[in-house]
Structure formats: structure tokens, C-alpha cells
Design brief:
CATH architecture of the largest domain in chain A: 3-Layer(aba) Sandwich
Largest sheet of chain A: 6 strands, parallel
CATH superfamily of the largest domain in chain A: Response regulator
Oligomer: homodimer
Number of helices of chain A: 14
Strand content of chain A: 5-15%
Number of domains of chain A: 3
Order of helices and strands of chain A: HHHHEHEHEHEEHEHEHEHEHEHEEH
Distance between the termini of chain A: 36 Å
Helix content of chain A: 40-55%
Structural class of chain A: alpha/beta
Amino acid sequence: MATLKEVAHIAGVSIATVSRVLSNSDYPVSPQTREAILKVAEDVGYSPNRAARSLRTERSSLIGVILDNFSSQWAPIIIRGIQDVLHNSGYFTLVVNIPWEKYSQTDVVQDMLGHSVDAFVFVETWHPVSERREMLNNRPYVIVHRLFHQSDPHSIIPDEAHNSALVVKHLLKLGHKKIAYIAGDSDYFSSSQRLDAYLYTMRAAGFAIQADWIARGDWSIRSGYACAQRILAADIMPSAIVAANDGLAYGALLAVIDAGLSVPADIAIVGYDNNDISSMSNPTITTVTLPLFLMGQVAAENLLRQLQTDDCEFAEQLIPGQLIVRQSCGAPEGKDVYARDYLRATME
Amino acid sequence: MATLKEVAHIAGVSIATVSRVLSNSDYPVSPQTREAILKVAEDVGYSPNRAARSLRTERSSLIGVILDNFSSQWAPIIIRGIQDVLHNSGYFTLVVNIPWEKYSQTDVVQDMLGHSVDAFVFVETWHPVSERREMLNNRPYVIVHRLFHQSDPHSIIPDEAHNSALVVKHLLKLGHKKIAYIAGDSDYFSSSQRLDAYLYTMRAAGFAIQADWIARGDWSIRSGYACAQRILAADIMPSAIVAANDGLAYGALLAVIDAGLSVPADIAIVGYDNNDISSMSNPTITTVTLPLFLMGQVAAENLLRQLQTDDCEFAEQLIPGQLIVRQSCGAPEGKDVYARDYLRATME
DNA sequence: CTTGACACAGTAAACGTTTTCCGATAAAGT
DNA sequence: ACTTTATCGGAAAACGTTTACTGTGTCAAG
């Protein structure tokens, strides 16, 4: 591997000059010398030794990315968004999945600091804010798709209020007035956000909500089934059910069908997350898709801003999702196909 | 951040000695000094500067992991397997998803070499062997879950022959003699492997195969549907269909049902890959699961062996999968539940 | 003609390790 | 008692950068 020294020797200049040209510093260098050096560097295939550079500058062009669950339906897409931006800016990511029964987040952060990462990204994972700042050695950080309640201004999260309003307004527009709701596990941030927005939008539209129209599940198909059964036994039968994710929605779908009713004729159903289940069920389920790739990009851009300026002004950033209209709500269908070519899509 | 120098100063020894103790070299150091140094290092929270170490030793404790498709159903699990082993041995991974319409593999490899990665892992991706060795600067490498035909002794791949035999023998044991087959896209390595093993096992068992029992699809649900229709129109109607993946199997399932037949009573169906689709369909589909986590682990262990010894003796390594018996083949069912709690499982 | 100011290039120190070489002490063999 | 050998510790060089400092030469303003 060629070094500065060799390039300098061939070009007949000092290594300082070569360094200044090749690390695009703004130190003045005459056009001829610059030209000559660039040519030599190209010829010998010079590539800077990151270790040496890192040792000297105390920056590594490495960014630590920490997650709990690599195999979540969201994480890989978010990471692609992050890398899309960071790689273009010359950064590499140290992606680590922490099975938190095995390693502590703190240990991993320590190890990463040993590699002198410039910043951190937490994906769908969480650590008490009070400790975080010092734990990270005051490096910039960002949390993307924070799942839990603990608030943090460095978060990039879906705009659940907007999304919920999207869903409820869509149903209202289709003429539904009696809309029930199946909430998710209350430990999760998005769960209460989605529920709150449902309540707010309904009230803002001037519609009453029956107490027995609201059930709370734990995200699973099974609990969606159980919740829907409770809702179907309500004093006033609703004409639509909004579920806080596609698993619950699919469970509700099964329950409604098992009760001898039809979807969407008798009861409309809407889910969340655009999980594969929602495009493969029969009927397919109208749902809200989260802009995961975009969230990753935004997170990375935020991080870059923190790295470039020392401006650490920060506010939670909300990214709106999109409604995907399918069969389960009775509206004219969007462009989505019945059984999406799942494997085809993932293999291309 | 504490340095060797500080530790040395406090412990009252030279940095050379501290280095020898802290980088567990086998250079003789008296127990007392060792003890003292370790204590001081612990107290000040010493953590070695990887950049400096890397500059000196020309190793980085970094391993480059390159993939095409982060969001494939296999990749995240494989990566977790890889990291499980590598992280325990003090390595970090530089995971990069290459959208190959955007960047060239060669560029990414170059960038990684700039960070002086010690070795490479290619996940489900491919590059001509002839160029590879020099492109990688003679660093060790390993390919895990190679999808294409181009053979390479450094590959860790599923033992498709074993898996196919598993499936066919299972059906033969259930009394099926007329077994049809839907193959996948012939560009893919596993496709031909699975087909070959089907043919071999059938012949070895002494059963004839009708030409119109074999159809070729492209992995998609749609093509599974079409292939099954062709097979159902065969001169001699088969009693079972083996499909090269779960998408094809699901398509076949739909076709059989649409033809007014029942699964498994009239036709048994078996798929591959234990995709979510196979556990959510009705009936659920018997399938073969690939040991992805294990494959990642094996790959990482191979890499470590290459790094430690300079022994580059290498042979393709085949990892056998497992049969998951579900409803679609008519056998007494395994422990798998009907609609697996998909989201629950991914969120925990 | 002086005096800055500026553009450009080079010298050398520093970053934190590892490791070679060398010296000192002690134990063991003659 | 003298060599040999093993054990332990230190001094110092090196890895490839970046950058503060210094030193030229040129040019414009006074």
C-alpha cells in the first residue's frame, strides 16, 4: 500500500504538501503542485491509512450503530437508510446487534469507543438518558424509531398522531361513525400515541366513543382475536375496527369472520405497519406504512449535522407515514395487488 | 482516555512492560508487576487506542461484511450468527449493504481495505473468483449462503441434497409415490441442487418420474400457482407436490384449492425455507428450515481459523437443515402452532 | 525603499501503540 | 569462582498521518 512518503518522493515535494492536497485541506497549494500530486496519487493507487489518520486526528470515520433486534421487520430497512447517507459521506458503520440478555449496552459502547467511533445511532433500543451522555463520552448520538416512552430530544420517530388521524379520517370519509379501537401493548410508545390520536380525531369530528369499543392487546394475532370478540359483544356494534398493528388487525379479521360477519361489508378493518400479513390475508388489510428508509436517512443527516457543526440544538423529529388502501375497509382499492409477490420482492 | 503512558507512570514501570501485560503477549513479566499493572489499568479504566495499535500491528480487529440485500429473509439472521462468534473474539464487523446498481463491490472493498479490515465475509453475494483474491489484497474471506452457481471452496452453504432427500423420504414414508416438483429460478444454485436431489432420491427409491410432474417457476407465489395448474393437468395426477420454496408452495396451495381439491387429503404440499407464509397459510405448510444462525457461526469460525493459522486449506462446507412438519402433508403435526404469533416473536 | 501581507512549501513534532535490542539481575551449570 | 542461561525490565524506533511553526519569495501599499 502506497504511503504519503512515497507519493511525496515521486512527486518531488514534501509529505506535508501531499497531505494537504490529499486530505483536501483548505491550506493554499499552487495549482501545478496540486495537479502533479493528484496524478501521482492516482497512478500509485494511494489510499490513506485510516489508522494513522485516526490516531492523529482522533476521528475514525466510524459510526456505531446499536440495536436490540436485527431481525425485526423494521431494523434492516432503517439501517439501509442510515448507511445510504453515511456511506456517501465517507463514514462506515459498526453495526452491532445486542442480545441484551448476553451483553450490556454499556460494554458494547465501551468497545466502540475503543475504536473511537465518531458518533452513535441507536435503533429501536433504549438507555436511560441521564446516564447516556457520559456513557457515550459526549459523542453525538441519535435514536431512530424509539419504541419506549422515555423521551429524548435526539429521537427520530414516526408521526403517530398524523398516521392515526389519517386512518380515522379515511374511515369517517367512508361514512363510518362507530369506530372501535384495539390498542397495543401500553409499554410501547407508539401504542399510546396511536390511541391518543384516535381519541382526539374522533372527538374533534364530534363522534361519541363507547367505552366498550376500546380494547387493549399485546400486538399478537391471538390477542387481536380476543379483543375483537370483546368488541363484537359491545352494546352498540361498531361498523369499523382500527387495530394498532397488522397482527392485531389480522386477529380481528379472523374473529369477525368466525362470528359469521363479513369484512368489509359488515365491519371494516384497518391495521398498522404494512406487515406482510396485511398483504397476504384474505381480504387484504388496509394499513399504514412507516417511512423506515426515510427515517434512517433523516437520522443520519441529523448525525452529520451534529458532527459538522457543534450545534446540538435538537428536537424530536416526527416523520409521517402513508395510508395503503386495501380490501378490508371497503374503499376503492389502491394499486396494491392481492397476494403481493413476497419472495420475488425480497430476492430482487 | 487513559493511555499506556499514564498507566506506566502510575504503576512506576515502563510503557513497554505495560504494553506487554495489557496486550497479553507471552513475554515474561513477573507476577507482582503484572498484578500491579492490571490493577492500575482497571482503576483508571484503561482501554487501548485501536488506531495506534492498528497502525503499529497492521491489524484492525475489523471484519468487512458485504451483502446485496439487507432485507432478505435470511441475511439478518446470518449476520447475527457471524457477530455472535466474531464479537466474542474481540472483532467488530463493518456491515455494508451494497445496492449494486449504485456502488461497485470493488469500491467498497477498497474503502474497507483503507480501514485495514482483517478479513471479509460475503453474505448471499458473489464476485468472480479469479479476481477476488487480489481484489481482497489476499485477505482471508468466506462466502456464506452463496446463491449462485459460481463455485468457491470458501463457501458455507445449506446441504440442499440432504434437505431435499429429507422431504422426499418423508413423503415416501407417508405412502406417496407420485410426487411432482416445482423448481425455482435456475439461476440460483439452491434451485438446481434441490431439483437434483429430488430426482436422485426418487430414482434411488425406485419410483418413476413423469416428465409433466416437473415445472419450473421463478420463486414467486404467482408462478407457483401457474406451475401447479400445469401439474394438475398431467396425464397421471400426482398425490404430492414439492415446491422449491414456500412462495411457490403457497401458490400451489391456492391452485389446488381453486381446482376444487383439498390439501392434504387429495394433494400433499411441501415447501422450503420456513418463510412466514408457510406458518400463516391455511392449511399451514410443511417446510424445511435453513440453519441460518448456525451458518453464520460456522462462517465466522472458519474465518477465525484462517486468521489464526495461515492454513488456507478449504472445502465447501454443507450445513443440513431440518424438516418442519405442518398440516399440508397430512402427517401428524409437529409442535408448530397454526398461526404463529408473528409480531410477538419479532418484537421480543 | 521599506513594510507588511500573502501565497506557498518544507521541517519536525506528535498521536499511542508494539517490538527489537540491550542491559541487569539471578539462578544454574561447570 | 567463572561462565552460561534464563528471566525480567527499559530505551527507543517505527507505523503513516496531520499540523504548528518557520522560512522563503512576491507583490502591493505606504
